[in-house]
Design a protein that fits this description.
Layout: E1 2-4, H1 6-16, E2 33-36, E3 38-43, H2 48-52, E4 59-61, E5 66-69, H3 73-78, E6 83-85, E7 88-90, H4 96-103, H5 105-108, E8 117-123, H6 129-150, E9 154-166, E10 169-172, E11 183-186, E12 190-193, H7 204-217, E13 220-221, E14 229-230, E15 233-244, H8 252-259, E16 261-270, H9 277-280, H10 285-308, H11 321-325, E17 335-342, H12 349-362, E18 366-369, E19 373-375, H13 377-447, E20 456-459, E21 467-468, E22 473-474, E23 476-483, E24 492-497, H14 503-521, H15 543-557, E25 560-562, E26 612-614, H16 626-635, H17 638-645, H18 662-670, H19 724-740, H20 746-761, H21 768-777, H22 794-811, H23 816-825, H24 834-853, E27 861-862, E28 865-866, H25 869-890, H26 893-902, H27 912-919, H28 927-941, H29 948-955
Parallel strand pairs: 3-7, 3-17, 8-16, 8-17
Antiparallel strand pairs: 1-19, 2-18, 4-5, 5-6, 9-10, 9-15, 11-12, 13-14, 15-16, 16-19, 20-23, 21-22, 23-24, 25-26, 27-28
Helix pairs in contact: 4-6, 8-13, 16-17, 19-20, 22-24, 23-28, 25-27, 25-28
Bound molecules: adenosine-5'-triphosphate.
Length: 977
C-alpha cells in the first residue's frame, strides 16, 4: 500500500472535487494542524481502604480546569497549596461518561476523520486508569460505530489489534502465543509490531468480545496498592479504513478510488501504574515489573518533556518500546488526549504531584495531525500515471505558452523596433519640415508684407531643371512666383541660365532673381535675403503654370525697358536666354560713419544688381534707393527713370519737370487721394487722369530716336539747353516716347523733335552747373525738355518742396539724421538739386500713402523687414536715444546747458538729453526750429566735418563728373541712417 500525506490528499481532493469524500472535520481536512495535547485530570474518590486508613482527600477541583491541593495549616508548611490548571479537571464525583465526553470524545472521533488519535491514561497505580480507559474505549468505539452507521456513503473497515508491553516485551493480546513480538520500522507507517493480530470486528458486540479477550490476556497482578493491578502497558488499536462507497465497481476509475483507503489508528493506552517500589512494597517479580514499568514511564516522561520544549533536538522515542510504538501518537501525526488519574488520598500526595507535573509537561506538547491516505500499489501506479500525464500536459502547455510568448515577444520586439524606426523617421521628417517651414517663413517674411505669403506659391523647379551638385548649378532653372491676388495674370517667371561656381554665387543668383521680382513688383531697393534652400524644386505638375508664366514672361520681354548701366554695373546684367555665366558684381563700398550704437545695417544691404526689369510690372508705384536711382540716372534719361521709379500722382496737377512713365500713369490712375504736390496747372500739359499717355492727343510728335530704347544724343560735348517753360510743356510728350514709340509714326517723332528744338531755342539761362549736370547725365540724345527748373523759379519751388518734404518727414517718421543730411545738402541754392527734392518728395508721398492706407502689400522693405509706421516710429525712437547718448560726448556741459536753456529744458529736470533729443525735428512750420534741430544733429554726427560735395557723394546723389577716372561713390541711403 502506498501512502499519501495530508498535503497530497489535499491536492488529490481538489483534483477529484471531493469525490473521495474524506471527512474533513476537526483537525482533518488534509492540511496538518498543530495543537497541544489535550490534558485532563480526573480525581477519583477515596476507596474503602483509603477511607479505612483514615486518608484525607486534600485535593479539590475548584473549577473545571483547576485542581488545588488543599491541606491543613500544619501541612501547608511542608506542602504549600498549589493550584494546577489543565484543559479539564474532573472531580471525584465525575462520571466516566462525562470524562469521555469532555476530554476524549473529540479526539476519539478524529479517527473517523482520517486522523490518528491516541488517548492515554496516566497515573499511579490504583488511581483509576483502567477504570477510566475501559469506559473511554467503549464510548469511543461506540461512537465510531455510530458514525459509521450514519455515514453509509463511505465504506469503513475496522481492524482491531491489542498488545501489551510487559517487562519491555510486546505481546499480542489477541493471540494466545506469549511470544514477544518484534518491532519493525515501516517507512510509511512508522514502527509496527510484527505479526500483531489484527482482527476485524464484525460489529460492536464482536468488538466487545475482543476487548474482553484483551482484558483477559493482560498481565494483572496483585500489589499492596491494587488487588488487580495492571502490570503492563496496554495498547488497544483500532484501525479504520474508509473509502467512498458509491465508486465501488462503477468503472475502472472508481476501482482506483475504491482502493484508496483512509486509515487511522485509534490507540487506547492504559499505562501501567507509576509507583514507588517502597510504596508498593514490591519485591521479586513485582519489583522487576516495577523497574520496567518505571523505566518505560520514565522514557515516556522524558519524551513528553522533550516534546514540551519543542521538536528541536533528539527525542528518545527508541529508549522504550512504549515510546517507540506510540511515536506517531506523541507529538507527531496524531491528536492526543491524556487523562491523568489522581488518587485524592493524602498518603499518595507525592505520586499525585508527580502525575500533575507529568500532565503539566504533556500540556506543552504540540502535535501535528494530518489526514492519512493510503493507496494500493495498482491505484498508486494509476494515480502516478495520471499525475504524470497531467504534468506532461502542463509541461506541454507551458512550452506552448512559452513558445507563444516567445513568438509574441519576438513580434512585439519587431514591432517596437519598427515603431522606433518610424518614430525616428517621423522626427527627422518633422525636423526637415520645420526647417523647411522656418526657411520658407523667413523667406516669405523677407519678401515682406508686399506679398502676403498666403498669396504666394513657389513653384518648384524639377530636378532636371535645376541641378546643383554642390559645386555648380547649371541648366535652366525656373522659379515662378504666382501671385493669386493677381489671379495669375501677373505671374512673373524669371528664367535664367546660369552656371554658378559656388554656393555664394547660387545665393547671388537667387538674390538677383529676388531683386528682379522685387523691383518688378515694388522696386524696393532692398534685396531679399533669400537662401538657395528657400527655393524648392518645382514639381512636374506645376509645369503648366510655369509654362504659362514663361509665355507671359516672353510677352512681357517685348516690353522690357532695358536700362543700360555703366560698365561696372553691367557685369551682372541678366539677359533672357543668355546662358553665359556671370559672376555676381562686387558689393559697393559702404560709408562708415561714427555712430557707435546706432542700428545701422548697411553692410548687410545687398546691392541691387538687376538691370533689366519689366516696365509693365511697375504698376503699383516704384520706390528705389537714391543710390540706384542716381546710378541709373547717370546713363539714362533721368526724367523718365525717375518717373518710372517714383511715379507722380497725376491728380495733384503737380508738374515736377520730369516725365512720366507708363507705370507712373497706372499709379496715377489708381491714386484717388489728393497729393501734397502743389503745382500750377497751367504750367503743365498733363495727361488726363485715367488716360494712358499714348492716348493723350497732346503728345509731341517727331521725337528723334536712334534706337529702340535710347534717345538720340546730339554728340559729344554738345550741351543740351532748354528752358523751364519748354520742358514743362514737352515733358509728358517726352516721357511717353519710350512707351509708345513703337506706335509713333515718323511724323510724330519728328514733331517731338521739333518740340525739343523749340525748347532749346528758348533757353534763357544756362548755368555752368547745369551744363555740367547735363553733360554728366549722358542722356544719350538731344534732350528735348527741361530737366531742372529755372533759377528764377527755383527758390519758390524749393521753398514749397522743402516744406512738403519736412511735413512728410514727420508724417513718415523719417530718420532725423537723414533729414539733417538732406536739409544741409539741399538749401535751394542750386536748381539742379530739384531732382533730389523730386525724388525725395515722390518717395515720401509713396511712403506716406502706403502708411495711410495701411497697405502692407506695397510697403517698402528695409533690410528684410517691412517698413511700417510702427517700425519707423521704433527706429526713430532708437535714433533719438542714440543722439541723446552722443550729446554727452560731443557737447561740453556748458554747451549742453546753453542748448537746454535755448530749448526750454529745465536744468534741474531729469533726462534732459532725452528731452532735447525728443524735441528735435518735431516742428514742421518753424524753420528756426528746423534749422536748430539740423544744426544740433549735424554736430552730433560730425556732418560739418565733411565738405558739401563729399556730403552729396556720401548721399550718392552727385551728378558731377567723376574726377580722376570716376572713383566709387559711397551710398548713404536714408533707410540706413
Ligand atoms: N473514579 C472512580 N470511581 C469509583 N471507583 C474508582 C474510580 N477509579 C478507580 N476506582 C476504583 O479503584 C480501583 C482501582 O482502579 P484501577 O484498577 O482502575 O486502578 P489502576 O490505576 O488501573 O491501577 P493499576 O495501575 O494498578 O492497574 C478499582 O477498584 C476501581 O473500581
Amino acid at each position: 500500500m502506498g501512502t499519501m500525506s495530508g498535503n497530497e490528499l489535499s491536492s488529490w481532493e481538489k483534483k477529484q472535487d471531493g469525490e473521495i469524500g474524506i471527512p474533513t472535520g476537526g483537525s482533518g481536512g488534509g492540511g496538518a494542524k498543530e495543537e497541544r495535547i489535550l490534558v485532563s485530570v480526573r480525581l477519583r474518590p477515596l476507596n474503602e481502604k483509603e477511607i479505612r486508613n483514615g486518608d484525607l482527600s486534600d485535593w479539590d477541583c475548584t473549577n473545571d480546569t483547576t485542581i488545588v491541593f488543599r491541606n491543613n495549616l500544619q501541612e501547608r508548611f511542608l506542602f504549600p497549596p498549589i493550584a494546577y490548571t489543565f484543559d479539564r479537571v474532573f472531580s471525584c464525583d465525575s462520571s466516566t461518561r462525562s470524562v469521555y465526553e469532555e476530554s476524549a470524545k473529540e479526539i476519539a472521533l478524529s479517527a473517523v476523520n482520517g486522523i490518528n488519535s491516541s488517548i492515554f491514561a496516566y497515573g499511579q497505580t490504583s488511581s483509576g486508569k483502567t477504570y477510566t480507559m475501559s469506559g473511554i474505549t467503549e464510548y469511543s468505539i461506540a461512537d465510531i460505530y455510530d458514525y459509521i452507521q450514519k455515514h453509509d456513503e463511505r465504506s469503513f473497515v475496522l481492524k482491531f489489534s491489542a498488545m501489551e508491553i510487559y517487562n519491555e516485551a510486546v505481546r499480542d493480546l489477541l493471540s494466545l502465543d506469549p511470544t514477544p513480538l518484534r518491532l519493525l520500522d515501516d517507512p510509511e507507517r512508522g514502527t509496527i509490531v510484527e505479526k500483531l493480530t489484527e482482527e476485524t470486528p464484525r460489529d460492536w458486540n464482536h468488538l466487545k468480545q475482543l476487548l474482553s479477550v484483551c482484558e483477559a490476556q493482560r498481565q494483572i497482578g496483585e500489589t499492596s496498592l491494587n488487588e488487580s493491578s495492571s502490570r503492563s502497558h496496554q495498547i488497544l488499536r483500532l484501525t479504520i479504513e474508509s473509502s467512498p462507497r458509491h465508486f465501488l465497481g462503477k468503472n475502472s476509475s472508481s476501482t482506483i478510488y475504491a482502493t484508496v483507503l483512509n486509515f487511522f489508528d485509534q490507540n487506547f493506552v492504559d499505562l501501567a501504574g507509576s509507583e514507588r517500589a517502597s510504596q508498593a512494597m514490591s519485591a521479586g517479580t513485582r519489583l522487576k515489573e516495577g523497574c520496567h514499568i518505571n523505566r518505560s514511564l520514565l522514557t515516556l516522561g522524558t519524551v513528553i518533556r522533550k516534546l514540551s520544549k519543542g521538536r528541536n533536538g533528539h527525542v528518545p522515542y527508541r529508549d522504550s518500546k512504549l515510546t517507540r510504538i506510540l511515536q506517531n501518537s506523541l507529538g507527531t501525526n496524531a491528536r492526543t488526549a491524556i487523562i491523568c488519574t489522581v488518587s485524592p488520598a493524602r498518603s499518595y500526595i507525592e505520586q499525585s504531584r508527580n502525575t500533575l507535573l507529568f500532565a503539566s509537561c504533556a500540556k506543552q506538547v504540540v502535535t501535528s495531525a494530518h489526514v492519512n491516505v493510503v493507496m494500493s500499489d495498482k491505484a498508486l501506479v494509476k494515480h502516478l500515471q495520471r499525475e504524470l500525464t497531467r504534468l506532461e500536459d502542463e509541461l506541454r502547455l507551458a512550452d506552448s505558452t512559452s513558445s507563444t510568448v516567445s513568438v509574441t515577444e519576438t513580434l512585439l520586439k519587431a514591432k517596437d523596433f519598427q515603431i522606433k524606426k518610424m518614430e525616428k523617421e517621423i522626427n527627422e521628417l518633422t525636423q526637415q519640415r520645420d526647417l523647411a517651414q522656418s526657411r520658407l517663413q523667413n523667406s516669405l517674411q523677407s519678401v515682406g508684407d508686399h506679398y502676403d505669403s498666403r498669396h504666394w506659391e513657389i513653384h518648384e523647379s524639377s530636378m532636371s531643371n535645376m541641378i546643383y551638385d554642390g559645386n555648380s548649378m547649371s541648366e535652366t532653372s525656373s522659379i515662378c512666383y504666382h501671385d493669386r491676388s493677381f489671379n495669375a495674370a501677373k505671374s512673373l517667371s524669371i528664367m535664367t541660365s546660369l552656371d554658378y561656381a559656388n554656393d555664394n554665387n547660387v545665393s547671388d543668383l537667387l538674390r538677383n532673381l529676388e531683386a528682379k521680382h522685387h523691383r518688378s513688383s515694388q522696386a524696393s531697393h532692398c534685396l531679399l535675403p533669400m537662401n538657395t534652400t528657400d527655393f524648392v524644386v518645382r514639381d512636374e505638375k506645376e509645369d503648366a503654370i510655369v509654362e504659362k508664366s514663361l509665355e507671359e514672361f516672353e510677352d512681357l520681354c517685348k516690353e522690357v525697358h532695358c536700362i543700360e548701366m555703366d560698365e561696372s554695373s553691367m557685369s551682372v546684367s541678366m539677359n533672357i536666354g543668355d546662358a553665359t555665366p556671370r559672376p555676381p558684381p562686387p558689393s559697393p563700398p559702404i560709408l562708415e560713419d561714427d555712430i557707435d550704437d546706432y542700428d545701422v545695417q548697411r553692410k548687410n544691404v545687398p546691392q541691387v544688381q538687376s538691370v533689366r526689369y519689366l516696365s509693365n510690372h511697375l504698376t503699383e508705384g516704384t520706390v528705389c534707393t537714391l543710390e540706384e536711382q542716381l546710378q541709373n540716372a547717370k546713363k539714362m534719361d533721368v526724367k523718365r527713370n525717375l518717373n518710372e521709379l517714383f511715379p507722380l500722382p497725376l491728380d495733384s496737377g503737380r508738374s515736377s519737370g520730369l516725365g512720366r512713365s507708363r507705370s507712373c500713369e497706372r499709379y496715377i490712375v489708381q491714386s484717388p487721394s489728393p497729393s501734397p504736390w502743389s503745382v500750377d496747372d497751367q504750367e503743365c500739359d498733363n495727361t488726363p487722369p485715367g488716360k494712358l499717355l499714348s492716348d493723350f492727343p497732346g503728345r509731341p510728335k517727331g521725337l528723334l530716336r536712334r534706337g529702340p530704347h535710347t534717345i538720340d544724343y546730339d554728340g559729344e560735348g554738345e550741351h543740351a539747353t532748354f528752358s523751364g517753360e519748354a520742358s514743362q510743356t514737352c515733358e509728358s510728350r517726352f516721357s511717353t516716347k519710350r512707351v509708345d514709340e513703337s506706335d509713333m509714326s515718323e511724323e510724330e517723332i519728328s514733331s517731338s523733335h521739333d518740340c525739343v528744338e523749340e525748347r532749346n531755342a528758348g533757353v534763357d539761362v544756362q548755368t555752368n552747373k547745369e551744363k555740367d549736370v547735363v553733360r554728366d547725365v549722358h542722356v544719350g540724345l538731344n534732350l528735348g525738355e527741361s530737366l531742372f527748373p529755372s533759377p528764377a523759379r527755383w527758390p519758390v519751388e524749393f521753398g514749397k518742396q522743402q516744406r512738403e518734404i519736412i511735413l512728410l518727414w514727420k508724417e513718415c517718421n523719417v530718420s532725423l539724421i537723414h533729414r539733417t543730411y538732406f536739409f544741409h545738402l539741399f538749401k535751394g541754392d542750386d536748381p539742379t538739386d530739384s531732382i533730389y527734392l523730386e525724388v525725395e518728395l515722390r518717395r515720401l508721398v509713396f511712403l506716406n500713402r502706403t502708411f495711410n492706407n495701411g497697405d502692407a502689400f506695397k510697403a517698402p522693405v528695409e533690410d528684410g523687414c517691412t517698413v511700417t509706421p510702427a517700425s519707423s516710429i521704433r527706429a526713430l525712437r532708437r535714433e533719438r536715444v542714440m543722439l541723446s547718448r552722443k550729446m554727452s560726448k560731443i557737447f561740453s556741459s556748458e554747451e549742453r546747458e546753453a542748448i537746454y536753456h535755448q530749448w526750454g529744458i529745465a536744468l534741474d529736470s531729469k533726462k534732459r538729453r532725452m528731452q532735447l533729443a525728443s524735441s528735435l525735428w518735431t516742428g514742421t512750420e518753424d524753420m528756426v526750429h528746423i534749422r536748430e534741430s539740423a544744426t544740433i544733429i549735424a554736430k552730433l554726427i560730425g556732418l560739418f566735418q565733411q565738405g558739401g560735395q563729399a556730403l552729396k557723394e556720401m548721399f550718392g546723389l552727385s551728378f558731377t563728373p567723376q574726377r580722376g577716372g570716376g572713383g566709387r561713390r559711397r551710398s548713404f541711403g536714408w533707410r540706413h541712417l
